[in-house]
Write the structure tokens for this entry.
Amino acid sequence: MEAPRTDLVRALRSAPELRATDEGDSLGYLSGHVITWGDWYEINSVYEGRFMERIAPGAASKTIRENRAAIKVLFDHGHDPALGNKVLGELTELEEDDIGLRYGLGLFDTSYNRDLLPGLKAGVYGSSHRFRAIKDEWDDNPTRSEQNPEGIPTRTIRELSLHELGPVAFPASPHATA
């Protein structure tokens, strides 16, 4: 199997947590886990092929340490026709815990964030992140299992470079929260 192309968008499903803040210039606080450690999800992509994937604990520690200031929070990876690459807010939390990679931010008081609020409050969006795999392990002939009943190839990401994260309309995996 060929290695997947880099810098592809990965979506992780979630229901957002949005709460009020004391900050006068914020519409609320959005938080959750954009990555959950060890949870398998299927990738079925024209670009990458079909395989099961999971992210190992600690895979984001280096990117947080070295690249935190450059990580942006966008809606639909900046591909929404109305919002484009408008940043939703500034990350105030980005840390690994026992569950996965937790993030949090106050939403800027903007018209585009006000347009997103009903969907965020209703929990209809998922969460996603754009990353590049730095270290990964493949098993092209895994044993069939409950998580992988067809025995398709598996990939475990040991280190990644995170570029962007945020709520999305069509996430790929049911494990992460926003």
